[in-house]
């Protein structure tokens, strides 16, 4: 499975994806960490600073590209100013 398939599998039945964002990273990437207790943490690294919504826009752009969905299909529901965010994913029909 590729990253797209792994991320798609982690979207819950309500269309929610829970992520942890690290702004001001050296490179943009998405990393899925599988912990010893069988839980999964999705980490998204973006190069933008967390100011004026720039980091959130970078998260949406990176997820849009990775999941192959339009940016308009992704919405930050919770955590607008926090590192832990809940993203709503609406797949086009």
TrEMBL record:
Matches recorded under InterPro entries: DUF167, YggU-like_sf
Matches recorded under Pfam families: DUF167
Position of the signal peptide: none
Domain of life: Bacteria
GO CC terms, sorted: cytoplasm
Family to which this protein belongs: Belongs to the UPF0235 family.
HAMAP family for this protein: UPF0235
UniProt protein name: UPF0235 protein DI551_01360
Organism listed in the record: Micavibrio aeruginosavorus
Organism placement in taxonomy: Bacteria, Pseudomonadati, Bdellovibrionota, Bdellovibrionia, Bdellovibrionales
């Amino acid at each position: 499975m590729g990253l797209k398939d792994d991320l798609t599998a982690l979207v819950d039945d309500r269309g929610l994806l829970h992520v942890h964002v690290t702004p001001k990273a050296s490179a943009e990437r998405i990393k899925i960490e599988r912990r010893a207790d069988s839980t999964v943490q999705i980490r998204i690294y973006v190069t933008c600073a967390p100011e004026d919504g720039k980091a959130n826009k970078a998260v949406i752009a990176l997820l849009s590209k990775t999941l192959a969905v339009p940016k308009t299909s992704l919405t930050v529901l919770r955590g607008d100013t926090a590192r832990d965010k809940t993203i709503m994913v609406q797949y086009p029909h």
